[in-house]
Amino acid sequence: MSGGCTQNVLYSFQGGSDGGNLIGSLIFDNSGNLYGTTYWGGEGGGTVFKLTPSGASWTYSLIYNLTGGGGPAASLTMDAAGNLYGTTAADGAYGAGSVFKLTPSNGGWTETDLYDFTGGSDGANPWSNVTFDANGNLYGTTLGGGYTGGNCFPGGCGVVWEFTP
Predict the structure, then answer these.
(1) Confidence (pTM)
(2) What is the predicted pLDDT for the residue at 53?
(3) Out of 2.40.128.270, 3.40.50.2000, 2.120.10.30, 3.40.50.1820, which CATH number does the structure's domain 21-163 have?
């Protein structure tokens, strides 16, 4: 114990089907469940998971296995309907990252690919959380893509993007 605080391990990841290399912050839903992401593991592209309080302990549930090679690199965001939104760093049709939505459906979750970054002027490698405005538009940033001159990395300086449903 340090500084009067007590630490409790809620779940210890194994790096296999449960995922590994946690990334981003955890988020709570209205029922007190925690949601998060792993960069690797599962089926190779990281996982989205849920931890449910159960008495004095927590129960791990795999929500979704992401495929591909560059999993989530930031925290999830939840809308008022309980849908989860996030980004992958280097997945998607062009290998430059994607924006996804997970919708609760019949006791499971359904994934919708909302956007695949091309690595050009639209950006590449979204390593940020996503956020909503009051109108339901989704915003985020990318590490690369966009302007390629000046003092940028060879892959570009990045962009701020908006997704309008």
Answers:
(1) 0.91
(2) 97
(3) 2.120.10.30
